[in-house]
Amino acid sequence: MALSKLDSLYMAVVSDHSKNPHHHGFLEDVKQINLNNPTCGDVISLSVQFDGDTISDIAFAGEGCTISTASSSMMTDAVIGKTKEEALELAEIFSKMVQGEKDERQKALGDAEFLAGVSKFPQRIKCSTLAWNALKKAIEQEEQKQ
After folding, report:
1. Contacts for 13 with CB less than 8 Å, ≥ 6 apart
2. What angle do CA 102, 107, 124 make, to 5 degrees?
3. Which residues 6+ apart lie within 8 Å of 146 measured at CB?
4. What are the chain's domains?
5. What is the pTM of this model?
């Protein structure tokens, strides 16, 4: 019985982030990072605004499946206000988690921890990591600018 309640909670959180994504849209005067997942057609355009070493604002737009959209929304919630280093660490924790690796630091992912079950569906891993990969690329480009 507890498993079905957990499954229901998982579905509710993922569905809510997909239907009502947080930080959805574009930021003005910020370079867009565009990535796609050719396997299923997910597309993301990520805008990240930095204030020194900190992510001061973030937004995403694009088309994607439920997992991709929910993961993008969850990622923006998890990294806003974090330093580049902290955000990269969260991206690494998330990537390992969706590949089935356990880590006590997963709690730091916030709602994104609900996507741990993606590891049971290898074909969905790329959907869940698309936004996180865009974030890593945005941080890498920002580092190169400085």
Report:
1. 70, 111, 114
2. 60
3. none
4. 2-145 (3.90.1010.10)
5. 0.93
